[in-house]
Write a structure and sequence with these properties.
This protein is α/β, with parallel strands linked by helices. Helices cover about 30% and strands about 20% of the residues. Helix 4 runs parallel beside helix 8, helix 8 packs parallel to helix 9 and helix 18 packs parallel to helix 19.
């Protein structure tokens, strides 16, 4: 949003609340803002209220009647936005037998349609994911099978995955011979990226692999969803040495798009290949990094505390021990240096005064140096002793070539099983750049053969930073039905012969083998190499179907009878527990402890923050015991009260009375 930064004097006015709220709103809904030229020829940013209402789930007549046109409007876009608003009624069911270290791991592998899964993760992971890497379908003219017809639903997925009786339904495909070739791909990608942005932390970053087929369209929808100002780079990745035949050009590269979530996002650095730093002093080797913030988004206008003078000692040298800079002017430190950009306008420093004093001047190894330029001016540098450098915009080394992914598959005895796997080093490098802190969460919702989880394991081992990984993959069959019989798909022959019926099954096995190999080669490693497998499935609770004109009295009576006991007959306690966890906003990786209160089995989650009782009967003693434990939330089955309204009312009053003297209230819920 444009702002006049030329006048640096205070105008005597208080904060423009409306303007501030617009800025905050633009961070949340960048696609709801448009830039137009006013009568003075200036570009101004304004709110598209109809679009904002649509993003909030309210579709007005004005928005519906808008004429669709080229640009960020395409046939089906409105329906794609509607799809974002449609809540998921599914659940994620735990699969202990396919997991590794189920009770203690904080890594997830989720089998299912990623759109439904992303919706289910909104409560528990909203604003908590540090980095996303995805390798979506490139839309090369071959089929991709993610659903993009709005009539398709959870039931279609369940049929496709073999979880309900198959009635011939399947996910739609997209080939070059079909109409709306690009728009079908856009309608598939748009809602997934929209939901993915919600999961990113404010300092988060997303990496997306893509090639020439859809890179332009991907840039456009990412500009809308993440904000054009948050575009960082379109990296060029050498994908193979010889090049693939592509018209008259042998194509040997792909792209890696990088977008930030907000101004708070940053990227890390990678080690320098040669290992040499160009300068040296009595403390050792170093490099000079300009202290001025070179990011044009930052300056005196929005970082006034980082605009101040640094005073230089013109007589200081590298060898005589004299300090080169000071925060105050004196007979020794005579020359004031301000952060200015290449055009002479006010910029800002990267460090504040406190850090400059503590680390740059008073540190055991002074880190700030003033250096005179040829024109007689001065510049301020950080004397960095880090042997790292910024990532370049072209990655052409052997480690990131796609062929390397096939080599790596052979190292875990899965050669021929993985179809065009991405090289581990490519995602390791993205992980290094996008995640530098312990417990950072990495998400890949087009997980394929599980390369991202493998890469996160290796990078965490290499730099000692424990990260968490969430992988999501559709159970895409490795076979097709021909004349009533299963026939292996092209490139999936070996997988089919070895009994891997789905790509997700291959990914699970790949992650298991990778973890086992890492542990065998590093027996003292204590990092988390496990993963908890969850699978998308229908809810454990029967869904109420709202009556319509076709609903008969008999249908309505039957529905009411079904909901006397609204829990599915096939539901088991652990599956119900995980559905409650996810829909209550708790991560499915939270530690679950089984305890006994008043003779009843109770699940304690997040060190007692949530207590869940799934017993068929509760009593006053249990209610009192839960109240004495003082959790933040307590959930039990509604049917457990056995129709005893007085017992339920007493339970409500018990917690209400307890909450009167507590800062954190106990939330009591029944299901």
């Amino acid at each position: 949003m444009s702002q006049d930064t030329t006048n640096t004097e205070m105008n005597g006015e208080t904060l423009d609340i409306a303007e501030q709220r617009k800025r905050e709103l633009q961070q949340l809904f960048p696609g709801a803002f448009t830039e137009t030229m006013n009568e003075q020829g200036e570009f101004v940013t304004s709110v598209d209220f109809e679009r904002l209402k649509a993003e909030l789930g309210e579709f007005t007549d004005t928005f519906e009647s808008r004429r669709e046109k080229y640009g960020m409007v395409w046939p089906g876009k409105r329906d794609a936005l509607r799809l974002v608003q449609e809540p998921s009624r599914a659940t994620l069911k735990p699969c202990r037998e396919e997991s590794v270290n189920f009770d203690n791991t904080e890594n997830l592998f989720i089998e299912g349609d990623n759109l439904e899964v992303l919706k289910l993760l909104q409560k528990s992971y909203y604003g908590k994911v540090k980095m996303i890497y995805i390798d979506p379908p490139y839309n090369t003219g071959k089929e991709f099978i993610y659903p993009d017809k709005y009539s398709e639903s959870l039931e279609t997925y369940l049929s496709y995955a073999g979880l309900v009786d198959d009635e011939g339904r399947k996910f739609t495909t997209n080939t070059a011979a079909e109409g709306r070739f690009h728009t079908k791909w856009l309608n598939m990608m748009y809602p997934r990226l929209y939901l993915a942005r919600n999961l990113l932390r404010d300092d988060g970053v997303i990496f997306i692999s893509i090639d020439d087929n859809e890179v332009e369209n991907l840039r456009r929808i990412c500009d809308e969803i993440f904000g054009e100002e948050n575009f960082l780079s379109q990296l060029i990745i050498q994908s193979n040495r010889r090049g693939q035949t592509y018209k008259e050009i042998a194509k040997c590269h792909e792209y890696l798009l990088v977008y930030y979530k907000s101004n708070d996002s940053t990227l890390g650095e990678i080690e320098k290949k040669d290992g040499a730093l160009p300068f040296s002093d009595k403390h050792g080797q170093y490099d000079l990094w300009e202290l001025r913030n070179r990011n044009p988004k930052f300056g005196r206008h929005n970082r006034p505390n980082l605009f101040y003078p640094i005073y230089v000692n013109p007589q200081a040298t590298e060898n005589d021990g004299l300090l080169g800079v000071s925060l105050s002017q004196s007979s020794t430190y005579t020359t004031a240096v301000y952060p200015r950009n290449s055009e002479g306008a006010d910029s800002c420093w990267r460090w504040g005064k406190e850090k400059l004093l503590k680390e740059g001047i008073q540190g055991k190894v002074p880190a700030i140096w003033g250096k005179q330029k040829r024109d007689g001016g001065w510049n301020i540098y950080e004397k960095s002793r880090k042997n790292t450098t910024k990532a370049k915009s072209i990655w052409a080394d052997t480690a990131v070539i796609n062929e390397q992914g096939t080599v790596e598959a052979g190292r875990i005895d899965m050669g021929g099983l993985l179809e065009f796997p991405k090289p581990v080093e490519l995602i390791k490098r993205a992980t290094l750049l996008g995640s530098e802190e312990s417990e950072d969460i990495i998400l890949d919702f087009f997980a394929g053969s599980g390369t991202t989880a493998h890469a996160v394991f290796l990078q965490s081992l290499e730099d000692g930073i424990p990260r968490k990984c969430i992988s999501v993959q559709l159970p895409e069959p490795t076979y097709e039905i021909v004349n009533g019989a299963k026939r292996p798909k092209k490139n999936n022959l070996k997988a089919f012969e070895q009994g891997y019926n789905t790509i997700s099954a291959i990914a699970i096995e790949r992650i298991r083998r990778a973890a086992k190999k890492i542990q065998s080669e590093n027996p003292d490693y204590k990092g988390d190499l496990g993963f908890k497998v969850l699978k998308l499935d229908q809810s454990n609770f029967k869904q109420w179907q709202a009556p319509d004109r076709k609903t008969t009295d008999e249908d309505l009576i039957q529905q009411m009878e079904l909901h006397i006991d609204h829990i599915q007959e096939t539901a088991d306690p652990e599956a119900i527990l995980y559905e409650l966890l996810i829909k209550a906003g708790f991560m499915p990786t939270e530690k679950v402890e089984t305890i006994t209160l008043a003779g009843k089995t109770v699940y304690s989650i997040a060190e007692g923050g949530l207590l869940v009782c799934l017993e068929d009967e509760v009593n006053h003693e249990l209610i009192q015991a839960v109240a004495d434990a003082e959790p933040a939330r307590f959930i039990c089955l509604d049917k457990a009260f056995g129709g005893n309204d007085q017992l339920k009312a007493n339970a409500v009053q018990t917690f209400k009375s307890l909450n009167q003297n507590r800062e954190i209230k106990i939330e009591f819920r029944t299901v």
